[in-house]
UniProtKB/TrEMBL annotation:
This is Fe2OG dioxygenase domain-containing protein. Keywords: Iron, Metal-binding, Oxidoreductase. The lineage of its organism: Eukaryota, Viridiplantae, Streptophyta, Embryophyta, Tracheophyta. The keyword Repressor does not apply. Residues 210-311 form the Fe2OG dioxygenase domain.
């Protein structure tokens, strides 16, 4: 069945060859011109600042005696960075390990086997690349498999790999764990913002019943890492995104408030949380949906798993009414009826992205 976001024609991608296959077959010692990213400043403005990135402990948020201090930390993390390392998150190791093993197992399969989950014309879902919309467009050093996981009726199971044999069970379990975790994390983000009672319940419930999509990224080793980019700078369109590293290879970088790319180091057992544009709008610009990107590595491949978490249609997407009342500030963004409409506007905007999408919502 062909997936279309009601009339929007950008939810699709042109097929391009797998970067993994290109590297495997040709073992290039240079990057092909289609992958040159000389338009992006790769050198300079880059810091290793692992010490400075905020770490948030979910256990401390859940425990009343330590909550208010940790909520202050969370508030400052969301304002300064829009990204933090979540530790003590309570997701069982077993599920995490099983997911990582199965994603790595999928990556390691022969190409023809992975092609059984290949994107179909007209859809972004499946194995391939994201948002390749023209034949002369520059490419990213990345293969991915993107699958809708929740609600269950949105799954396109024909694209869910049957191999490795436990892949489906692992993804089902993992995405369920991420759904529960996201609702919990969003509840505390709401509290940090000063939201309470009915509106906090609405917010939390909307994520509990929301939409969850998982993107598994594979970044092969790259002969000229400074010339190519794994993933272009972008701010996620989600409410929040939960990112798990499958190994110990750094690659994710976040743009600081003073415009430096800062490496987000893999933390064993940790999950990186970054706010998406829905939360930036909800917080009326108090919190950031940071630009981030993935750089590639000369020797090592890297695998990551990003879960995009969206609120259900029960939540209007606009500045929080309680926040506006409490601060007395005017809304800086329009309110759209729900995350579905928000996504449609985003996809139609992608045709002309000279202006950041979120700026098009400014009042
Ligand atoms: C994404 C993303 C970063 C990474 O998939 O949106 O930002 O490190 N991924 O893979
Ligand atoms: Ni992202």
């Amino acid at each position: 069945m062909e997936e279309k976001e009601e009339g929007v024609n950008l939810n699709w991608t042109l097929p391009v060859s797998s970067v993994q296959e290109l590297v495997r077959q040709r073992q290039p010692d240079a990057v092909a011109p289609r992958y040159f990213r000389d338009d992006i400043v790769m050198a300079g403005h880059h810091r290793e600042l692992s010490q400075g990135l905020p770490r948030i402990d979910l256990g401390k948020l859940m425990d009343p005696p330590s909550r208010s201090t940790e909520l202050c930390n969370l508030h400052s993390a969301c304002r300064q960075w829009g990204l933090f390392l979540l530790v003590n998150h309570g997701v069982l190791d077993e599920g995490m390990r099983m997911m990582k093993e199965n994603v790595q197992g999928f990556v390691d399969l022969p190409h023809h086997e992975k092609q059984k989950s290949a994107q179909k014309p007209g859809s972004l879902e499946g194995y391939g690349q994201a948002f390749v919309i023209s034949h002369d467009q520059k490419l990213q050093w990345n293969d991915m498999i993107f699958l809708k996981c929740h609600p269950a009726h949105a799954r396109n199971l024909d694209l869910w790999p049957k191999n490795p044999p436990e892949f489906r069970i692992a993804l089902e379990k993992y995405s369920e764990d991420m759904r529960k975790l996201a609702a919990e994390v969003v509840k505390y983000i709401g509290m940090a913002l000063g939201i309470h009672e009915g509106e906090l319940d609405l917010l939390t419930k909307s994520f509990g019943e929301g939409k969850y999509e998982v993107r598994m990224n594979y970044y092969p080793a790259c002969p000229e890492p400074e010339r190519a980019i794994g993933l272009l700078p972008h701010a996620d369109i989600s409410g929040i995104t939960l990112l798990t590293e499958c190994g110990n290879i750094p690659g994710l970088q976040v743009l600081s408030k003073d415009n430096c790319w800062v490496t987000v180091p893999p933390v064993p057992g940790g999950i990186v949380v970054n706010l998406g544009q829905i939360m930036e709008v909800y917080s009326n610009g108090t919190y950031r949906a940071p630009d981030h990107r993935a750089v590639v590595n000369k020797e090592k491949e890297r695998v990551s798993i990003a879960t995009f978490c969206y609120p259900s249609p029960s939540l209007p997407v606009g500045p929080s009414p309680q926040l506006l009342a409490a601060t007395g500030l005017p809304p800086i963004y329009q309110t759209l009826s729900n995350s579905g409409e928000f996504l449609q506007c985003f996809l139609s905007h992608k045709l002309d992205d000279a202006v950041p999408f979120i700026d098009t919502l400014k009042l």
